Amino acid sequence: MLKFISIDIGGTKISISIGNEKGKIVNSDRMQTQSFRDSKEAIQHIIEKTKRLLKDSNKTLQDIDAVGISCPGPIHKTKGIMLSPPNLKGWKNTPIVKELEKGFSKPTFMNNDANAAVLAEFTFGTFKNTPNLVYLTASTGMGGGIIVNNQLLQGASDTAGEVGHFVLDPNGPLCPCGQRGCFEVYCGGANLAQKIRKDIQSENISTKIIDFASGDPNNIDITCLAKAVQEKDHYALQVWDTFTERMSQGIGMIIMTLNPEVIILGTIAIHTKDLLLNPLKEKLKKYAWPMALSSCIIQPSDIGDKISELAGLAVALNGLKGG
Are 38 and 91 in contact (CB under 8 A)? Predict the structure, then answer.
């Protein structure tokens, strides 16, 4: 049975796991990303911690068939480079594949986090081997990974699946990417929390959202919003209505473009379930044809928090298969 090292690099943490082609995790550990000055220091620690993990698991590098990396985009997959991850200072133009191949002497493969996640769902999830499958991170940001006819859609410049930057309103709020009115501006958790904080502070809005944030606007997140919606808070209901409308608009575009059998939603849907799914499915009727909607299952990921461990395994396995 093939055995892999899985490395998931995020803005907050770096997760390292040892697992096999069936998705069984033998051992795992994590480090805080911001505890390192730059990528060079982080990579050195990744290599050292991985070797300790192997030793603790009674394994050696000789037992490993490949290494898989899941990391923030943008990337150059062919060259194995992390180009300019927005939330990782000191990681610009990092030749991550070359450095880890040097450290492990094993075939090493990489992809961006959303593509790695859809590979994990396709390989290990409830809807594994579904020919046309879309995964939306629906978390801090809004990334997408797309499987079409059993193949990952990579794109000419490794930017296929960047659905978070569909422009829903060219006159909308400015997105950090430079465009206006992006899907991510309206539906990414970080941007949504920022909007709520701005509204509350600039308009002196009274809302239970701030109560669920323990009175501190800096603690506001999607969980605070969802709890306030369940309490029928007037402002929270308005925000949720706009959020689900924009979510429906973005997903409608995906459905009409790709006609997938399944769309799997990440963090926000995992935590809010029907609170999101019920209005989403109702509003989708305005943005996609009945034929396409009836052919598409939309549900939260069943993999959940395991995605950070399984993503790298799926990237390694897909890489060995020539993907």
Answer: yes
Tell me which residue of 85, 153, 83, 72 sits closest to 111, measured CA to CA.
72
Residue keyed to tokens 């009727």: 285
Residue 36 gets which letter from DSSP? Answer: S
What does residue 220 show for φ and ψ, rounded to 5 degrees?
-65, 130
In the numeric block, which tokens belong to residue 37? 């000055």
Q: What is the C-alpha to C-alpha distance for residues 96 and 214, in angstroms, rounded to an integer?
A: 40
- Nearest CA to 17 out of 64, 79, 74, 87 is that of 64
| 147 three-state secondary structure | strand
The three-state secondary structure class of 307 is: helix
Identify residue 236 by its one-letter amino acid code.
A
- The pLDDT score that the predictor gives to residue 177 is 87
Rounded CA-CA distance 132/258 in Å is: 8
In a 10 Å sphere around its CB, with 0-12 CB exposed, 13-18 middle and 19+ buried, how is residue 60 labelled? Answer: exposed
**Helical ranges in the chain per DSSP H:** 39-56, 96-104, 113-124, 183-187, 189-203, 208-212, 222-230, 234-258, 267-272, 274-283, 290-294, 307-320
Whether the CB-CB separation of 127 and 262 falls below 8 Å is answered with yes
> Consecutive 10-residue runs of the chain (323 residues): their mean pLDDT?
96 94 96 93 97 95 97 94 90 97 98 97 97 96 96 94 96 93 96 95 95 96 97 98 98 98 97 98 98 98 92 97 88
Examine residue 74 and say whether the peptide bond preceding it is cis (omega within 30 degrees of 0).
Answer: yes
**Tokens representing 182?**
């992006």
Residue 289 three-state SS: coil
Tokens standing for 304? 């959940």
Give the tokens for residue 155: 């794109």
pTM above 0.85, yes or no: yes
Q: Which residue type does 209 have?
A: I
**Which one-letter amino acid corresponds to residue 134?**
V
Contact 109, 97 (CB under 8 A): yes
The C-alpha atoms of residue 86 and residue 72 are separated, in whole angstroms, by 8
